[in-house]
Specification:
single chain, Arc Repressor Mutant, subunit A, Tetracycline Repressor, domain 2, 12 helices, 72% helix, disordered N terminus
């Protein structure tokens, strides 16, 4: 079994440490690498980051990156994947066929509002890292972030198909899925712009909870508008 295969479950366990728990002794080396890599990548970007500096901060030898990840590019991808392992975790456990539209949307949006800097500084690093990737694309991520979100988008589509009485998604449903997702992703991936435009908007847990409820309301409005459009289109077709 390869080192990469052996280490995959450890990444999941490491992701579960984000709210403040600590990794086990067996996870320690890998977690230190992920933690120091996140810091270095967020501070200087992918291109300027060196494996030597990452290993120095992690207090491990240079061979550790090769053993766990293969190279710097794969380590960078793993740091990005780490943030998404916890994203939409609650949403992905829902019985999507029976949950109400409101509760389903609430669970979906809640995953985009993790605890802030005052509660978990590492998550702020992840936000900085995402913002840096937007400004200074690394060229190594491809669609890695989207692939990690695909299961959640699939569940969202299943819920929307149920609402519109569809057996499978059509082009308009694809548009709706992306529109609902974009309502929340700006707050997570464009934190620097948000802080410049409205710095208090999601500062503190209460503000983030209120924003989640606002997004649920906006989303329901979009869904109802699409429901009305489909109904009118159907009437026009049969007449």
């Amino acid at each position: 079994m390869s080192a990469k295969t052996k280490s995959s479950p450890l990444l999941v366990q490491a992701a579960q440490c984000l709210p403040g728990q600590h990794p086990t002794a067996q996870e320690e080396t890998r977690w230190r690498l992920l933690r120091s890599a996140t810091e270095v990548f967020a501070e200087v970007g992918y291109h300027a980051a060196t494996t030597r500096e990452i290993c120095r901060r992690a207090e491990v030898n240079l061979a550790s990156i090769h053993y766990y990840y293969g190279d710097k590019a794969e380590l960078y991808r793993e740091v990005f994947r780490l943030t998404f392992l916890n994203e939409c975790n609650t949403f992905n456990t829902l019985d999507i066929e029976h949950v109400s539209l409101e509760n389903g949307l609430r669970a979906f949006f809640q995953c985009f509002f993790p605890v802030g800097t005052e509660e978990a500084p590492k998550l702020q690093l992840f936000m900085r890292l995402h913002a840096r990737e937007v400004v200074e694309p690394s060229g190594v991520l491809d669609d890695a972030m989207m692939r990690t979100l695909l299961p959640s988008l699939g569940k969202l589509q299943t819920m929307l198909c149920r609402e519109f009485g569809l057996e499978k998604p059509d082009t308009e449903l694809d548009c709706m899925t992306i529109a609902l997702t974009c309502l929340a992703t700006f707050y997570f991936h464009n934190r620097m712009e948000l802080d410049n435009f409205a710095p208090k908007l999601i500062e503190g847990q209460r503000a983030r909870e209120m924003m989640t409820e606002r997004l649920v309301g906006y989303a329901i409005g979009l869904v109802e508008s699409e429901r009305k459009r489909r109904s009118l289109a159907h009437l026009a077709y049969i007449t």
